[in-house]
Amino acid sequence: MKNCTLFSVIIFVVTLMSCSKNDTGVTPTIPTSIQKIKLAEGFSAGTKIELYADDTLRTGYNQLYIRALDSATNAVIRDAQLTLNPQMDMGSMTHSCPTEQPTSTQISGDLFPVAAIFTMVGNDSQKWSLSISFRTIATKEGTLTFPISVVKGTFPPKIFMDSDGKEMILAMLPIAKPIVGMNDVEFAVFSNASDVYTPIDDLTMTITPEMPSMGHGSPNNVNPIDKGQGHYTGKVNFIMTGEWKINLALERAGTNIGQQFFMITL
Questions:
Q1: What are the chain's domains?
Q2: Rounded to an integer, what distance in angstroms lies between the CA atom of residue 95 and that of residue 119?
Q3: pLDDT digits 0-9 by tens, 53-62
Q4: 57 within 8 A of 89, measured Cβ to Cβ
Q5: Burial class of residue 176 (count of CB atoms within 10 Å of its CB; 0-12, 13-18, 19+)
Q6: How far apart are CA 222 and CA 204, in angstroms?
Q7: Alpha-carbon gap, residue 234 to 259, rounded angstroms
Q8: Nearest 5°: phi and psi at 61?
Q9: CA–CA separation, 80 and 139 (whole Å)
Q10: Per-residue DSSP letter, 249
Q11: Which phi-psi region, left, alpha or beta, contains residue 188 (left: φ > 0; alpha: ψ -120 to 50)?
Q12: What is the pLDDT of residues 140-167, one digit of tens each?
């Protein structure tokens, strides 16, 4: 009798496991919990698209994340081709902003990292939206558009003209926890031609921090150098707490194209 009971339990467990599989015989990968802010989600062509961020969207550089799931099985799709397209509707005109697009080789866990440099705040008459287009290996494709809110950021981007008269957008990536002492610092630079944004990798940057209230600077800074895709990394040294002005002198092919600055408070 004990053997019959044990056999019946085994049959029940095997049957239950078989029923939990989908029609292809592959158990779906259930997505893990994401410790980020979910901005939006939507469905199209049997696919669920979720948009996340680390913080409230602000003018300047914003790290974003996209998760794609099969809406039938809830399995994470890691082979998707995704395109991010921000759009600012100003009523009489529309424009986009610089973005960093995801690839299937960049996915980390369940998330595709992307980025956008929002150039202005949104309000009732000037509204931002984000369109996400996707294509999967299963030939599913579609586009979802989400309204988003963008507020004034701590490091709003600088928009200026280079020596050739082309519009340039310079953004400083947020320093998560600035400290007294040496801090890693990173900038992103794009040019704009008819709403097409291209990363710029041929600039020379000289960084000079100063403390306006005290009338002094700080030593031992490391000038940002190009690391590709329009990004430049260096180090800035803050020798005391207070408000600092981070000055950047920019050159291109030996020609001075101006000086920009960002403010930061420790």
A1: 37-148 (2.60.40.3340), 158-265 (2.60.40.10)
A2: 10
A3: 999 999 999 9
A4: no
A5: exposed
A6: 12
A7: 17
A8: -80, 125
A9: 10
A10: E
A11: beta
A12: 899 999 999 999 999 999 999 988 888 9
